[in-house]
Amino acid sequence: MRVERIARDKVRIFISYDDLEERGIDRDEIWHNGKKVQDLFWDMMETAYMEVGFDIAGPISVEAFTMPTEGVVVIVTRIPSMPGAGHDDGDYGDEEETYFERDHGFSSRSTPTHMVMAFRDLDDLLDACKTLRQYPVHTSLYHHEGAYQLVIHGDLRPDQWEEVFSILVEYGEMSRVTSWVLEEYGKVIFADHAVEQLLRNFPT
User: Fold this and answer.
1) Residue 195 to residues 91, 114, 128, Cα–Cα distance (Å)
2) InterPro entries of this UniProt entry (predicted)?
C-alpha cells in the first residue's frame, strides 16, 4: 500500500493485487461492501493518517479505479461541512458509519482523468509515444527525480485508460509523483503536445 497526499483535502492510495490477495480479497470483491473491504478501507485511512497526517472527520467521497497490472487506485477527498450544519461528536460517528455503508465499498468504478508515467530511458519514452499518439489525449513532459515524467490527460473510456496503461507499462512505470508536484518542482520539457513534439524532434 502506498499513500500520496495530492491536496490538502485529498489523498491517493495505491493497493497492489498482492496486497488484496494477502487480505483474501478477490479483484472483483473490491467493488462490494463486505467486511474485508471495510476493514481494508479503515486500514487505508489509518495508514494515510500515520504517513501523511490525513484524517477524516465528517463526510468524504471515495473514487476507485483499477489498473491492469498495478492494482487499485483509491482517491479519498474530504468534503467541507456546510455552513451552519453543526454536529456534536456523537453525530459525527453516526454520519461516518452511514457514509461508509453507502460509498466505502467502492461500489462503482470511477474513470481516471489523467495519469503520470515515468521513463528512465528516452528510447523507451519514444517507443511508448509511437503507440500513444493514436489516442485522443493531451500530454506534458517533465524531468524529475532522474526520469522523464509524462503526464497524460484525456476524456477516455475506462477500457481505453486500461489500454493506455497496458501499453505504457511495457516501457515505463506508474510515477511516484503527481502532476501537481511536477508543475511545482519538475523541469518542464514540453508543456503541451509532448507526444507530437517528441516524435517530431526525434524521428525514427
Assistant:
1) 51, 15, 9
2) MecA_C_sf, Neg-reg_MecA
State the architecture of 114-201 in CATH terms.
Answer: 2-Layer Sandwich (3.30)
Q: Which of 180, 179, 181, 198 is nearest to 189 (CA)?
A: 198
Q: What per-residue string of b and e applies to 9-27 under the rule 16 or more CB within 10 Å gives b?
A: ebbbbbbebebbeeeebee
pLDDT at 99 over 50: no
Check pLDDT > 90 for residue 127: yes
Q: How many other CB atoms are found less than 10 A from the CB of residue 124?
A: 15
CB 60 within 8 A of CB 77: yes
pLDDT recorded at residue 80:
65
CA distance 158 to 90: 39
Q: For residue 136, is it left (φ>0), alpha (ψ between -120 and 50) or beta?
A: beta
pLDDT score of 204 more than 80: no
* 30: DSSP letter: G
User: What ranges do the domains of the chain cover?
Assistant: 2-103, 114-201
Average pLDDT, the chain: 79
Triad 112, 133, 6: Cα angle to 5°: 30
The DSSP H or E segment spanning 4 is: strand 2-7
Coil/strand/helix, residue 64: strand
Segment 54-57 long-range contacts (CB within 8 Å, at least 24 positions apart):
54/3, 54/5, 54/11, 56/96, 57/92, 57/96
